[in-house]
Amino acid sequence: MILEALVVWLVCAFAAALIASAKGRSSCGFAFLAFILGPLGLIVAALASPDQEELTRRSLRNGTLRKCPRCAEAIKREALACRFCGCDMALFHEERTWLERVADRLAGI
Ligand SMILES: [Zn+2]
Fold this sequence. Notes:
single chain; mainly alpha; about 55% helix; about 5% strand; two-stranded antiparallel ribbon
């Protein structure tokens, strides 16, 4: 009986860690909380609000987002214009060579 309860508590801790990690929260902290509280800790992890700043930092690190060179806000990597300041991101696209960017500027694009 004690062994089964320990397995349930460990599963709750592991699930809470996964949920917290997906929300940008401390996976170790929520795993510890769920290990102490059991299923209640799992519910707390499920109801916790996502840490948007951490999720943005992760997206910047993995390349899903990039910073606008003008306003420094995080925008999608594929965006052609910044949604915050309207900066033309085509001029800063990494796939474009320096010569292509200069040619576009001279052509008035
Ligand atoms: Zn911008």
